[in-house]
Records
---
Amino acid sequence: MNLRFLLPIALVTAAAAQNSAVRNAAAEKTPPSERPAATAPDQTQVRGPAPFPAWNSLKFPQLRQVTIPKPAEFTLPNGMRLYLLEDHELPVVSGFALIRTGNLFDPPGKIGTAEITGSVMRSGGTKRMTGDQMDVALENVAASVESGIEESAGTVSFSCLKENTDSVLQMFHDVLTEPAFSQDKIDLIKTQLASSIARRNDEPSSIANREFANIIYGRNTPYGWTMQYADLANIHRDDLLAFYHRYYFPANVMLAVYGDISVDQMKARLATLFDDWNAKEPPVPAFPEVQKIPAAGVYLASKSDVTQTFFEVGHIGGLISDKDYPALEVAADILGGGFSSRLFSRVRTELGYAYNISAYWAADFDHPGLFEIGGSTQSKDTVATLEEIEKELAKMRTTEVTPDELQGAKDKVLNSFVFRFDRPSKTLNRVMLYKYYGYPEDFVFRYQKAVAAVTRADVLRVCEKYFKPDQLTIVAVGNPTDFGEPLARLGLTVQPIDLSIPEPPRAPAAAVTAKTEEQGHAQLVEMQKAMGGPDKLAAVKSTRMDTSATVDAGGQQIKVQQVSMFVAPSTFRQETTLPFGKMTVYSNGQTGWAASPRGVQDLPPPMLKELRGELFRELFTLALSDRDPNRTVSLAGPDTLAISDKDGDSVELHIDPATHLPSSLVYHSVGQAGPVTAEEDYSDWREVSGVKAPFHIVVKHDGKTFADATIEDCKINPPLTADALAQKPAASTPKP
């Protein structure tokens, strides 16, 4: 009867295994272009392959010089600034608005307000069209209108064929000036964000990146805070409207339009289109400054289900406008910018510690970025890899780089920079960013000249000045039991990173009084009698349930077979057969593992915690809660019991007044997309070995059916032992 939590795990794990197998199979297929010809070739035409030229004989022409087109600039009467650029190569018109806002302006306690606002501006539709109607209209003409808000800018963009410019511009105008913020789309994005919170610890590389930035910038600052369930619960439609009206007004918007247009005609069209938008607000304040919080040290995020250590090493960086930024970018490229970089050559090629490693001096337009060295290594080589990184940093600060290293890095930086300007649209986008952040018009050329002028002495000077080994923040995500040496060997105190995710806020429970406890116990006794009596329930020491179920897996109905086995007081095993493989989950209440076609892995702490909740909700055990001194039973309403324990687990148990049998169980859990209010509805009660059990269970998540299960066979006190349930399955081969 334990269908609530483990089925989602089984589905996700098995689906991942299936996707991996599909990718591997696809990789083995030969593209049609590489298959043998249908007819034999003319033998007289067959020649051997031409010899490859020596690499040092290859000659390449210089890349074209960057040219910056000058867009026509205007300011409309309402204060909106226009930038128009003609490009008649294709019959296409595109544009984007930059709005001075960002998630740095999220209100405390409501982190995510900007992101939700930016998303629902488009998905929530406008006063003229719903978001869904807009989707259809745009798809029919191969056009797009999109919106979003990032750290320090909001955007609304459009793209269309020239012939559809008028209709698409109207939709673009409506999204920018009169979004409807429909409640159903707000609820949808909040559900999606809740899912991202639930899954944010799935990828160790993402954990390392997130924690590294949050530690350096400060967890309680706009640059380092993390969205929680409580933030989402605090965000309502009125918050989005208030955020929108504060930052979306004409004088706070830069609008660029480019493509197959006439500047004069487009200017007139936009002046007419936006003539009705005259909202006014005070000037937007400056973005918060970065607080340079000392964060030197070693930080460990323990994750038992990984076989590698993912790491980030570095400290606060600088601005793109800093005079030493070009030399720092060259220096970082020499240190870790590619296959020939020092870190790659030493840590991967020579020592074989890591598959990937890289270094960046990641500056930002308007606030200091991060200097970071990141990658992954075998668990046993964690400390050795980090020590090698420190050694390579020291070399960069004490000895000049070679002439070949310098020239190679400069060529790479300059050549990659050119590709930001290889199309007029990308060029205009870059020009707009420079204007948005207050950079000079000729910044592109200043930067190119500065990179070209970098010398070996410059690289040594900036490394000595800006690379600070004594201020390194080292974040490691891995299994410390597999480290070859303890992290403390690095000479710094190891500080643990808490990866727990705070539970979503819940409505306050009904007050428990002596009277409600007495009433609750009385009703529980009636339920025990209906289920066979307390003594027979207490005699249940093991169970086996064979179940067939239909499960909703992301909108797709999947048939599954499941065998659930339980040995009191807390040993549990569940074997689930899915269309793409078998999943087995085991726990003794303290530890556990999951086995799939991909192998056996220990259950991480969040899953173990949820599984302990499953054991708390085991129906026969729940019926005897009055015999457990750690549990509280209280009457929460008519025919409703509130049962909780000292570990924080709680349920609402609804009882059928006619039969006194449980009719449904309501509790908070984690579903496929994050936290849910779960409900189990019980029916088709049958007697088995003197006790009654439900043979039909419907599981709902937030009111929607997740699983419809039928118990095909129920055994009470079968010959099961805890040791037998703990046996891991033999290794299996994934299905093709």
---
Amino acid sequence: MTLAGCAALPLSHAVKAQETQQVDHRFAPPWWQTAICLPDDEQKSLVGKEGMLLYDYRAGAEVSHKFQTSIAVELPGKSEWLRQELLSPRVPIVRTCKRNGAVEIIEEAFARGTPREDFILVQLRNTGAVETAAAPAVAIQSGAPMKFDEAQGRVEIGKNTVVSASLKVKACDAQGKRAALLFEPLTLPARGEVHFAVRVRRNSQGAPDPLDLARAEALRRQVQEYWEKLDLPYGVITVPDAGVQALLESSIRNIYQAREIKNGLPAFQVGPTCYRGLWVVDGSFLMEAVALLGRTQEARAGMQYLLSFQQPDGGFELIKGHFKETGIVLWALTRHARLTRDKQWLSEVWPKVERGCAYIQSMREHAAADPKAPNYRLIAPGFSDGGLAGPHLEYTNVYWSLVGVRAAVEAARWLGKTAQAEAWQKEYDDFMATFRRAAERDMADDGHGNRCLPIPMTQRGLTPISGSLEMGCLSLLPPLQKAQWSFLHAVFPGKLFAANDPLVTGNLAMLRAAESEGLVLDTGWMSQGIWAYFGSFYAHAWLWMGDREKAIRTYYAFANHASPLLAWREEQKPVGKGNEEVGDMPHNWASAEFIRLTRHLLILERGEELHLCEGLPAEWVRPNMVTRVQGGSTDFGPVTFELRVNADGSQAHVTLETGVGQAVSLSDRLTACPTKIVLHHSGWSGREGTMELCTGRKTECDVPLRLNYSPQRHRDTEKGF
């Protein structure tokens, strides 16, 4: 079918496109680290920006960026760093390029599995017209004891690390925590080059064989082939923006590199260093991202691991005072059940849902002792996270507990448990009304005329809570945007509020007034810092509230805070404002968020309706461009969606198939059609509005496009500007 009333506009009305959104890493952190380890690897090997291998992360280590061991290739004098890049988004072979006088240094770092070894392949290339000499060394820094094995020409670090090279060792210079394997000087003819290899063996039994350069180069080719053939869910989301596609594929790879198998189940971990473990909120979104990519069985196994942490009282509290974790799990498991359309599994874990709801109700009862207390019938003082510690009276635990109960109500209705749904609905209604009264009491002005709700309760009333620095005096009040991550989650995926809710519009306006580099400043632990993947929470809220253009701009701002090695640091300073850093890297909640946000810009469930292209960037609708989601999981079963622009850019062909996709073996797999399928074409076709597609198994339509269309210029032209 053809979009009714949407004939192509005359070319005389065409306007030039504004500057396009693009991924250029303009806000990259000043220093980064990149994972080269294998999927589910126990050894989380990392490469620093300058090409060094980094091991043994310790929060208090002083050797190199909080790593106890650093291994790097060096030449005498100062080398100039030129660039660093991945072999490809799917292949974590890290190439670092430097210059030392006339000598160009190219290092490739990679890891192999059995035995577990890391390598640096080094190429020294003389760019000059005369012969020159180079005296390379392997510089080692470590807080662990180091021993030089002269006979083997290697250094042993502690009990589990052996460093060797393919060059003959001349000497070992050791001083305290530093050592250097020194080699005979190499002669580089004019325009000539020399190659050698460095190997680091970790946690392997037996003495390593002598390192042979040819063998190391063969292993490098094998490692590349391994990654290129590895069965990860790369093909599910395909977009015509190469920068975005690279970030998507790197995000997928990084999630699997950070993951580990524990108790026979996959633990979807946040990162390789300070956040190497399962966090309830991070892990829940990581598992949702994997499920959205069609890997529902892996997400199911990860969910099983998460559910194993439920306490006898029904609650989840992996972080002390993080009472919100129970609500997060209730949302996560019910969301997983809907994405897999698996009522039988949900019925099997239903006792966990019931115990979780009972725990939230008991928390509310414990907060009911004093009717005059600010948190009366809400939640006890707890840990906010995202820039606010505690314990203090606050709203993050309230927001997520509300989301959890709401999710349980919807799940009960889905299973036909009508009486239970009605009882929990009454609990939810009372909980929400209690929250509304408290929120009205605690609303504040942000200084820009925006009425918003701070996360600490009675913030302007200065009610002190034991252990809370934020409540001590007016001068110590935190910025209003601190810990608002939970508010954004309450908007989406929590869906607690209507689009025109004053609390939502006020809070979003407050956050918008605090933006820097397209994201919100000072939302996390770093003072005046940028929490990069907060941008996904922020963009999701704008998308859910119907502002597609703001969501897209925020999406690209989020993308441009990644490093050129296609991963994110948790928090960093704005460009030029300092080198401080907070959190892990690669931070894989960020990876999950980029996957989730890309998917939701293209496909979004709104209750029982399926909405397409709400956040499709206009830059993705150019001649011959293709945007596709192949067999992605939705609340309505697997969906394949494609938007293909013709050769002259005058028309887009849309195809949608439901109930298709990857093979699954989950029990009680159900196929359910949405009540409505809505295609949004505002912002990219040249005309405002939506169209409704048929809800059958397969539907197709053509959308005429306005050439050189720009949403902002289109509005300005209509206004007579």
---
Amino acid sequence: MAKTVKRRKITPHDLFKLRIITGLAMSPDEKRVAYGVERIDPTANKYFQNISVLDITSGESRQFTHGDHNDGQPVWSPDGCQMAFISTREKKTGIYLMPSAGGAERKLLEIEGTLASLQWTPNGRHLVFALRYSDSHFIKDEKKKEEPPVFRHITRLFYRLDGEGFLPKDTFQVYALDVTSAELRQITKGKRDNISPHVSPDGRWVAYTSNRAKDPDLDSLRDDLFVVPFKGGRERRIATPAGPVTNPKFSYDGRMIAYIGHANPDDTGVTNLHVWSVGLNGRPAAKDLMPGFDRMAVGQAISDTSDAHAEAQLEWSADNKQILFLSSDTGAVNFYSVPARSGKPTRLFKGKCHIRGFSVNGTNRTAALMYADLDNPGDIIICPVSYGAEKRAKQMTKLNPFLKAEIAPSQTKEVWFKSFDGTDVQGWLVTPPGFNPKRRYPSILEIHGGPRTQYAFTFFHEMRYLAACGYVVFYTNPRGGSSRGETWGEAISGGWGDLDYRDCMAAADWLENQKFVDPRRMGITGGSYGGYMTNWIIGHTHRFRAAVTQRSVVDLKSFFGSSDMGFFLRKNFNGFPWTNPENYEKCSPITYFRNIKTPVLILHNERDLRCNIEQAEQMFATLKVMGKKVEFVRFPDEPHGLSRHGRPDRRIARLEWIRKWFDRYLKR
């Protein structure tokens, strides 16, 4: 008789047990899938990533790379006999080569810098990629590489990026690496970034994108598409409408290039990114292949178990008749195709799930998907590349079996409710393990960041942990977010704090009206834009008994200059702080801080360049002088994305601070 295992509640330290898929690559014979798996080493307090290979026929996986390294972006050689990958070891990044059957790895290149878009040439003789050297690469004295510079001379508006810090003086350029001699050759040059390279099937051309606007920082969405001979030579621009151009891919016959983009260079983040195509010689002209599709052709879902929330990916079918991509729709991210001649997209894999990425190769009959849902942080699904693929899909991995075997389940269910004007709003309700509907629980309303993102049918460790602590957790997708069309996203352009606030209050109304929720013990939290909304809400209502604001926006006028991308606010607030100061002041939460009565905990990261810590400092000083109940927790050395990929002990500390603050005010 089998012994019954008593399940326990999920804890912050379960982060150390999670295994997260970071990428995957189908082999040319469609029999194997290479994939990265990230783990946390509790002793080192660091993340490490290795590559494994799945045999689709047997269902067995074997670890391909080993050691405390970060190995990723695996790519199979055209004959399937070798695999190249990028690895970061001892502060340097390299390209390594290894027989696909396993064996000794060979280092082809090691640099101080960043590598991206790794791929093989069709003849298997070269690897092509984008490379940007770090400033330290050019310093010959090894001792000086550890020292900060004497000064930094800034001339560009976009000179730093959250998570990276100050950007190097070098630009991304396209390079080719000979896999036999390890000789490195630069293909493109110039003072502008040349990124996202893709080699034509005949090996003659390399397509890439570059922003050649007079000021690419102010006109960041004016990308151009170029091709250059692989052997070197003069680049040629291929005409596309003004707007973003990403992920160019040659068709298998080499005649066409598909890309993801749109034709609105003044977009506020709501114009639908679609699949476009253009002829190699500019004929036929560039066109949107899915003009009537009121959704984004990218994945837009946030989670605390993956970094990305805008998965832009496309691939041609082997017969050149279809183009495969991901799309977000009402809380789901699914796998689609669109006819290469244009037409209505088809959802190949349909489900209440989050497809985080896909890979096809060879004849494109089989796809490998990175599949996540409300109960699963991510596994590999194999399915046919055809309509109704979910009915014939097969799960090939079980990377986190402890979640089902050890953890007491917290039920998460989709909820729809009406806003003030009758608009339907989507949300998810998480109830504690052992939930008793006859009890009255304290509750927490969570608000997502962005705002151009979405909560989705995907695993969220934070929500489950707070539910395990005895809270009913409710998270929703108010207007201004993504995945419900351009009108939905455009609803808050020109100013935040109106329709989005009303939708959040409608969510609070719905939550308060549930018989199992104690209306006197409701809390609220959110990060980034969700932190903005938390600040806004407690300045406009006293219905919440406690609040935790995280990496938030407080004063839009100072945010304009202190954020790495604050200058984009002009597109969302009808001008600049000096041309429309009234709107910036009206929409800034700090304007209403005198109204706050809710005890508030401020969480912020000291190296956050997206929402600079000066925002939190302003809030703390203002509320403290006003005599409000406020405390401030600062996380050293952490960028904006602490909750997703910060140092593990700090991620745990963050969760514990949130829990302790709500326990103090909602459980007494």
